[in-house]
Amino acid sequence: MSSKQSRTQSRTDKAGAPQKAARSAAGPAAGRPRRLTAAAALAALEGVALAAAGVFLLVMGVAGKPDSPQQAVTGGVTVLALAALPLTAARGLWQLRRWGRGPAVITQVMALPVAWTLISSGGALIAAGVVLALVAVAALVLLVNPTATEALGIDTRRG
Asked: Where is this region: Disordered (predicted)?
């Protein structure tokens, strides 16, 4: 660290914001709690899974013999577009951006009825529904944790 940087940091420390100075000097990883890292990883996992499903639907719509190729391609494109939400949320959470929490919570809330539908369908889909439900609930718990909200700069105490 150069002398100019250390002088700037010490002035910042005296101004009463030692955590922000340390976070900006070391990057976001230094101030990111493990719970927030786990929430970002779960959101990214969901986004990758949705993207893979979208690609699969597109390939099957083009190369396979669906009843309606147009419907299959539209479904694939829609699922690919939906994959953007959890991937964007994961990026925001990873970078400690306050806005990343909103799309992450929305993704988890949307995943719960999907999980219920999979569980209700029966067969092999029950396992997929249970896994999705567990991931969604775990991510929600991680996202509302006080450590995570504090790291994102969200003040839940009103007074």
From this structure: 1-30
The H-assigned helical ranges of the chain are 3-14, 18-26, 28-31, 34-63, 69-94, 101-121, 125-144, 146-151
pLDDT for the residue 88: 96
Give residue 64's pLDDT. 83
Q: What is the mean pLDDT of the chain?
A: 83
Sign of the alpha-carbon dihedral angle for 96, 129, 51, 82: negative
Whether 118 and 126 have beta carbons less than 8 Å apart is answered as yes
- 121 Cβ contact partners less than 8 Å away, ≥ 6 residues apart: 129
Q: Beta-carbon neighbour count of residue 42 at 10 Å?
A: 24
Domain ranges across the chain: 32-151
